[in-house]
Amino acid sequence: ISITSVVVFCVGVFGSLVAPWLLGRGGVTDPMAQGFALGSAAHGIGTARAIEIGALEGALSGLAMALMGIMTALLLPVIEKFLY
């Protein structure tokens, strides 16, 4: 469990540092797309970064993070059945 928390933390930090640059290089200028990308990929730290970018980005980042958590909880047991 401790390795999981370290990986999640590292992914969040890396995503919050790299995602704004990567989204800019990719031509993603829509605030909704930026917020969803940061929330779903970089978790809580990405949401904090999205709030720094703007209010809309921060709100949608929080929504994306919550939706990813719900979908993980609902879909992981189904996917697990197909892995074995």
Outline the structure in words.
The longest helix is centred in the C-terminal third of the chain and has 29 residues, at 55-83. With 84 residues, the chain is an all-alpha fold. The chain has helices at 2-25, 31-53, 55-83.
The averaged pLDDT comes out at: 92
Largest sheet composition:
none
Question: What general outline do the C-alpha atoms trace?
Answer: globular
Q: Over all CA atoms, what is the radius of gyration?
A: 14 Å
List keywords for this structure.
mainly alpha, 90% helix, globular
Sequence-ordered SSE layout with sheet pairings:
Blueprint: H1 2-25, H2 31-53, H3 55-83
Short description:
With 84 residues, this protein is mainly alpha-helical. The chain has three helices and no strands.
